[in-house]
Amino acid sequence: MSASIQATKTEDVDFSPSEQVIPDLMSQYNSSDFFQEELGEVEQSAVNVVMADVSINQEAKIDGVADDIARSKLVCSQATTEAFLVQLPADSVVKLVHTAVPSTPCCYQQLVSSEEAQLSIHQDRKSSPQVSRTVQLRMPLVHSLARNTSADNPYYVIYAKTRTQQFNDQKTTGSIEDMETLDRNYQANLSNTNLNFKDVKVDAVSQEQSGASYFYKLSPKEPWRYFGVHAYQANVRASTVVDWRVWDCELNSQLGQEKIKIIRNLVPEEVLRKLGQ
Q1: What order of strands is seen across the sheet that includes strand 155-159?
Q2: Per the domain annotation, does 44 fall within a domain?
Q3: 3-state class (DSSP) for residue 120
Q4: Which segments of the chain have a pLDDT < 70?
Q5: What predicted TM-score, i.e. pTM, was given to this entire model?
Protein backbone atom coordinates (compact mmCIF):
# COMPACT_ATOMS: atom_id res chain seq x y z
CA MET A 1 0.00 0.00 0.00
CA SER A 2 1.36 3.40 -0.87
CA ALA A 3 2.48 5.70 1.89
CA SER A 4 1.29 8.71 -0.07
CA ILE A 5 -1.26 11.01 1.51
CA GLN A 6 -2.68 11.94 -1.88
CA ALA A 7 -6.43 11.49 -2.26
CA THR A 8 -7.82 8.07 -3.08
CA LYS A 9 -10.98 7.41 -5.04
CA THR A 10 -14.17 7.11 -3.02
CA GLU A 11 -16.74 6.65 -5.75
CA ASP A 12 -17.08 2.87 -5.25
CA VAL A 13 -17.05 2.88 -1.46
CA ASP A 14 -20.32 1.89 0.21
CA PHE A 15 -20.80 3.66 3.53
CA SER A 16 -24.39 2.47 3.96
CA PRO A 17 -25.47 0.86 7.23
CA SER A 18 -24.52 -2.78 7.63
CA GLU A 19 -26.80 -5.48 8.98
CA GLN A 20 -23.87 -7.24 10.61
CA VAL A 21 -23.27 -7.05 14.34
CA ILE A 22 -21.54 -3.76 15.05
CA PRO A 23 -18.20 -4.27 16.86
CA ASP A 24 -16.77 -2.01 19.52
CA LEU A 25 -15.26 1.13 18.03
CA MET A 26 -11.90 1.11 19.79
CA SER A 27 -11.18 -2.59 19.27
CA GLN A 28 -12.29 -2.89 15.65
CA TYR A 29 -11.70 0.43 13.85
CA ASN A 30 -8.52 -0.74 12.08
CA SER A 31 -10.21 -3.75 10.49
CA SER A 32 -12.86 -1.63 8.73
CA ASP A 33 -13.00 -1.37 4.95
CA PHE A 34 -12.58 2.38 5.19
CA PHE A 35 -9.40 2.13 7.24
CA GLN A 36 -7.92 -0.57 5.00
CA GLU A 37 -8.95 0.81 1.62
CA GLU A 38 -9.20 4.59 1.94
CA LEU A 39 -6.21 5.48 4.09
CA GLY A 40 -2.57 5.27 3.10
CA GLU A 41 0.04 3.72 5.38
CA VAL A 42 1.14 7.05 6.82
CA GLU A 43 -2.48 7.96 7.62
CA GLN A 44 -3.12 4.52 9.16
CA SER A 45 -0.12 4.91 11.44
CA ALA A 46 -1.33 8.32 12.55
CA VAL A 47 -4.80 6.97 13.33
CA ASN A 48 -3.33 4.04 15.28
CA VAL A 49 -1.40 6.44 17.51
CA VAL A 50 -4.43 8.66 18.17
CA MET A 51 -6.86 5.80 18.74
CA ALA A 52 -4.46 4.01 21.09
CA ASP A 53 -4.24 7.17 23.17
CA VAL A 54 -8.04 7.53 23.20
CA SER A 55 -8.47 3.88 24.16
CA ILE A 56 -6.13 4.22 27.13
CA ASN A 57 -6.86 7.77 28.28
CA GLN A 58 -10.31 8.51 26.77
CA GLU A 59 -8.82 11.60 25.14
CA ALA A 60 -5.93 12.23 22.76
CA LYS A 61 -4.26 15.62 22.98
CA ILE A 62 -2.30 16.87 20.00
CA ASP A 63 -0.52 19.92 21.37
CA GLY A 64 2.20 22.18 20.05
CA VAL A 65 2.29 20.46 16.66
CA ALA A 66 2.37 22.09 13.24
CA ASP A 67 -1.15 22.52 11.88
CA ASP A 68 -0.73 20.25 8.84
CA ILE A 69 0.60 17.37 10.94
CA ALA A 70 -2.06 17.73 13.62
CA ARG A 71 -4.81 18.03 10.99
CA SER A 72 -3.82 14.80 9.26
CA LYS A 73 -3.76 12.87 12.53
CA LEU A 74 -7.03 14.17 13.86
CA VAL A 75 -9.12 14.30 10.69
CA CYS A 76 -8.12 10.79 9.60
CA SER A 77 -9.12 9.56 13.07
CA GLN A 78 -12.40 11.46 12.81
CA ALA A 79 -13.09 10.02 9.36
CA THR A 80 -12.34 6.48 10.54
CA THR A 81 -14.82 6.93 13.37
CA GLU A 82 -17.45 8.42 11.06
CA ALA A 83 -17.11 5.37 8.80
CA PHE A 84 -17.89 3.26 11.88
CA LEU A 85 -20.81 5.41 13.02
CA VAL A 86 -22.55 5.38 9.65
CA GLN A 87 -23.03 1.62 10.10
CA LEU A 88 -25.15 2.14 13.20
CA PRO A 89 -28.95 2.50 13.06
CA ALA A 90 -30.05 6.08 12.38
CA ASP A 91 -31.56 6.62 15.83
CA SER A 92 -28.41 5.33 17.55
CA VAL A 93 -26.27 8.30 16.52
CA VAL A 94 -26.85 12.00 17.21
CA LYS A 95 -24.71 14.08 14.87
CA LEU A 96 -23.65 17.68 15.35
CA VAL A 97 -21.01 19.86 13.78
CA HIS A 98 -20.41 23.22 15.46
CA THR A 99 -18.11 25.63 13.65
CA ALA A 100 -17.86 29.33 12.88
CA VAL A 101 -19.18 28.79 9.34
CA PRO A 102 -20.97 25.76 7.88
CA SER A 103 -18.66 22.77 7.93
CA THR A 104 -16.73 22.32 4.69
CA PRO A 105 -18.11 18.84 3.81
CA CYS A 106 -21.62 20.30 4.06
CA CYS A 107 -20.73 22.86 1.39
CA TYR A 108 -20.13 20.45 -1.47
CA GLN A 109 -22.81 18.71 -3.50
CA GLN A 110 -20.85 15.76 -4.80
CA LEU A 111 -17.52 13.99 -4.56
CA VAL A 112 -14.74 16.46 -5.16
CA SER A 113 -11.32 16.42 -6.70
CA SER A 114 -8.28 17.72 -4.82
CA GLU A 115 -8.46 20.87 -6.94
CA GLU A 116 -12.10 21.48 -6.05
CA ALA A 117 -11.33 20.86 -2.38
CA GLN A 118 -9.11 23.93 -2.47
CA LEU A 119 -12.15 26.22 -2.73
CA SER A 120 -12.67 26.27 1.02
CA ILE A 121 -9.05 26.90 1.95
CA HIS A 122 -7.28 30.22 2.39
CA GLN A 123 -4.87 31.15 -0.39
CA ASP A 124 -1.87 31.02 1.93
CA ARG A 125 -2.54 27.35 2.72
CA LYS A 126 -3.52 26.01 -0.68
CA SER A 127 -0.11 24.47 -1.24
CA SER A 128 -0.69 22.02 1.61
CA PRO A 129 -1.73 18.55 0.37
CA GLN A 130 -2.63 17.57 3.94
CA VAL A 131 -5.27 20.29 4.22
CA SER A 132 -6.94 19.63 0.88
CA ARG A 133 -6.75 15.88 1.53
CA THR A 134 -8.70 16.17 4.77
CA VAL A 135 -11.36 18.30 3.07
CA GLN A 136 -11.77 15.68 0.36
CA LEU A 137 -11.59 12.65 2.64
CA ARG A 138 -14.55 13.46 4.88
CA MET A 139 -17.04 14.80 2.35
CA PRO A 140 -18.57 11.43 1.30
CA LEU A 141 -18.67 10.28 4.93
CA VAL A 142 -20.56 13.35 6.13
CA HIS A 143 -23.05 13.01 3.30
CA SER A 144 -23.53 9.32 4.15
CA LEU A 145 -24.20 10.29 7.76
CA ALA A 146 -26.70 12.91 6.57
CA ARG A 147 -28.51 10.24 4.56
CA ASN A 148 -28.53 7.77 7.47
CA THR A 149 -30.92 9.83 9.58
CA SER A 150 -34.53 9.87 10.71
CA ALA A 151 -37.19 12.58 10.69
CA ASP A 152 -36.51 13.61 14.29
CA ASN A 153 -32.78 12.93 14.26
CA PRO A 154 -31.10 14.96 11.48
CA TYR A 155 -27.47 15.94 11.01
CA TYR A 156 -27.25 19.30 12.84
CA VAL A 157 -25.09 21.98 11.20
CA ILE A 158 -24.49 24.63 13.85
CA TYR A 159 -22.72 27.83 12.83
CA ALA A 160 -22.64 31.60 13.35
CA LYS A 161 -21.93 33.10 9.92
CA THR A 162 -22.05 32.20 6.26
CA ARG A 163 -18.71 31.97 4.51
CA THR A 164 -19.47 35.15 2.61
CA GLN A 165 -20.20 37.01 5.86
CA GLN A 166 -16.97 35.75 7.39
CA PHE A 167 -15.04 36.85 4.31
CA ASN A 168 -16.56 40.32 4.40
CA ASP A 169 -16.19 40.75 8.16
CA GLN A 170 -12.62 39.58 8.46
CA LYS A 171 -11.35 40.63 5.04
CA THR A 172 -9.53 37.33 4.77
CA THR A 173 -7.55 36.23 1.76
CA GLY A 174 -9.24 34.11 -0.84
CA SER A 175 -12.02 34.67 -3.32
CA ILE A 176 -15.45 36.07 -2.57
CA GLU A 177 -16.69 34.10 -5.59
CA ASP A 178 -15.47 30.86 -4.01
CA MET A 179 -17.19 31.71 -0.73
CA GLU A 180 -20.44 32.51 -2.52
CA THR A 181 -20.25 29.20 -4.37
CA LEU A 182 -19.80 27.26 -1.13
CA ASP A 183 -22.71 29.12 0.48
CA ARG A 184 -24.93 28.26 -2.50
CA ASN A 185 -23.85 24.63 -2.29
CA TYR A 186 -24.76 24.53 1.38
CA GLN A 187 -28.22 25.96 0.71
CA ALA A 188 -28.71 23.43 -2.08
CA ASN A 189 -27.79 20.61 0.30
CA LEU A 190 -30.37 21.87 2.80
CA SER A 191 -32.99 21.54 0.06
CA ASN A 192 -31.77 18.12 -1.06
CA THR A 193 -34.35 15.56 0.09
CA ASN A 194 -31.70 12.83 0.01
CA LEU A 195 -29.75 14.62 2.72
CA ASN A 196 -31.11 15.48 6.14
CA PHE A 197 -29.00 18.43 7.23
CA LYS A 198 -30.64 20.73 9.77
CA ASP A 199 -29.57 24.37 9.68
CA VAL A 200 -28.95 25.84 13.16
CA LYS A 201 -27.82 29.48 13.21
CA VAL A 202 -26.38 30.75 16.50
CA ASP A 203 -24.89 34.03 17.67
CA ALA A 204 -21.32 32.80 17.95
CA VAL A 205 -19.17 29.67 17.95
CA SER A 206 -15.93 30.22 19.83
CA GLN A 207 -12.66 28.56 18.86
CA GLU A 208 -12.93 26.44 22.01
CA GLN A 209 -16.30 25.15 20.75
CA SER A 210 -15.20 24.48 17.18
CA GLY A 211 -15.44 20.83 16.20
CA ALA A 212 -17.89 17.96 15.92
CA SER A 213 -19.87 15.87 18.40
CA TYR A 214 -21.27 12.39 17.83
CA PHE A 215 -23.34 10.78 20.56
CA TYR A 216 -23.93 7.09 19.93
CA LYS A 217 -25.15 3.81 21.37
CA LEU A 218 -23.80 0.40 20.40
CA SER A 219 -27.07 -1.16 21.59
CA PRO A 220 -30.38 0.29 22.84
CA LYS A 221 -29.69 -0.67 26.47
CA GLU A 222 -26.25 0.88 26.63
CA PRO A 223 -25.62 4.46 27.79
CA TRP A 224 -24.83 7.21 25.34
CA ARG A 225 -21.19 7.56 24.39
CA TYR A 226 -19.60 10.78 23.22
CA PHE A 227 -17.09 10.84 20.37
CA GLY A 228 -15.93 14.38 19.81
CA VAL A 229 -13.22 16.47 18.24
CA HIS A 230 -11.99 19.97 18.95
CA ALA A 231 -10.60 21.19 15.65
CA TYR A 232 -9.70 24.19 13.54
CA GLN A 233 -11.66 24.56 10.30
CA ALA A 234 -9.73 24.10 7.07
CA ASN A 235 -10.68 27.61 5.95
CA VAL A 236 -9.22 29.21 9.08
CA ARG A 237 -5.67 30.48 8.95
CA ALA A 238 -4.23 28.63 11.90
CA SER A 239 -1.11 29.64 13.79
CA THR A 240 2.15 27.74 13.32
CA VAL A 241 1.33 25.35 16.13
CA VAL A 242 -2.14 24.44 17.37
CA ASP A 243 -3.80 22.31 20.04
CA TRP A 244 -6.31 19.65 18.99
CA ARG A 245 -8.43 17.14 20.92
CA VAL A 246 -10.25 13.90 20.14
CA TRP A 247 -12.11 11.84 22.73
CA ASP A 248 -14.45 8.89 23.17
CA CYS A 249 -16.13 8.31 26.52
CA GLU A 250 -19.49 7.76 28.17
CA LEU A 251 -21.51 10.96 28.00
CA ASN A 252 -22.28 10.86 31.73
CA SER A 253 -18.66 10.32 32.71
CA GLN A 254 -16.65 13.18 34.19
CA LEU A 255 -14.91 13.82 30.86
CA GLY A 256 -18.17 13.58 28.91
CA GLN A 257 -19.84 16.13 31.16
CA GLU A 258 -16.84 18.46 30.94
CA LYS A 259 -16.95 18.32 27.14
CA ILE A 260 -20.69 18.81 26.68
CA LYS A 261 -20.62 21.76 29.10
CA ILE A 262 -18.34 23.58 26.63
CA ILE A 263 -20.89 23.37 23.79
CA ARG A 264 -24.11 23.15 25.78
CA ASN A 265 -25.34 26.60 24.74
CA LEU A 266 -25.07 25.53 21.09
CA VAL A 267 -26.92 22.21 21.38
CA PRO A 268 -30.62 22.28 20.40
CA GLU A 269 -33.02 21.54 23.25
CA GLU A 270 -34.44 18.49 21.51
CA VAL A 271 -30.97 16.98 21.38
CA LEU A 272 -30.37 17.60 25.09
CA ARG A 273 -33.71 15.92 25.86
CA LYS A 274 -32.87 12.92 23.68
CA LEU A 275 -29.56 12.55 25.47
CA GLY A 276 -31.12 12.92 28.91
CA GLN A 277 -29.21 16.13 29.61
Answers
A1: 59-66, 241-250, 225-230, 211-216, 93-98, 155-159, 197-201
A2: no
A3: helix
A4: 1-23, 63-69, 110-135, 171-174, 232-242
A5: 0.83
